[in-house]
Design goal:
Largest sheet: 2 strands, antiparallel
Low-confidence stretches: none
Number of helices: 5
Strand content: 5-15%
Shape: globular
Structural class: mainly alpha
Order of helices and strands: HHHEEEEHH
Radius of gyration: 15 Å
Distance between the termini: 28 Å
Length: 118
């Protein structure tokens, strides 16, 4: 399975740190379905946003380089990402490792490496 260390950590968390269970699911449903079930990918097709990008939180326009997104493609300005991640860490410390994209009902989990950028 071709995943980053951060994505491997999210997969293991999703399967309760049970490597055997994780590998069993990998062989049963395949890598793509496994990543989707753990909130690492989505089945929808990503579209490249045009410049400027409207932040889905503060609704202000930003240049693409001033925004960040996960694999889902939902772009938010970097200050809003920072506030969102800080809020998740301070208000839900136990579940903060399972935080997802701030877009409504988006299941994509925030990898550690993304959170560390803020």
């Amino acid at each position: 399975m071709d995943v980053t260390n951060s994505e491997a950590s999210l997969l293991l968390r999703a399967y309760g740190w049970d490597r055997e269970k994780l590998m069993g699911q990998f062989f049963n449903i395949g890598g793509d379905a496994l990543q989707q079930s753990a909130g690492l990918t989505t089945s929808s097709t990503l579209q490249t946003p045009s410049d400027p990008v409207e932040c889905g939180i503060c609704w202000a326009d930003f240049a693409i380089k001033e925004t960040s997104s996960l694999r889902c493609g939902h772009h938010f300005c970097n200050p809003c990402w920072n506030d969102y991640i800080c809020d998740r860490l301070s208000t839900s410390s136990r579940d903060s490792v399972r935080s997802v994209c701030p877009s409504y009902k988006c299941p994509i989990r925030i990898p550690d490496e993304h959170a560390k950028n803020f």
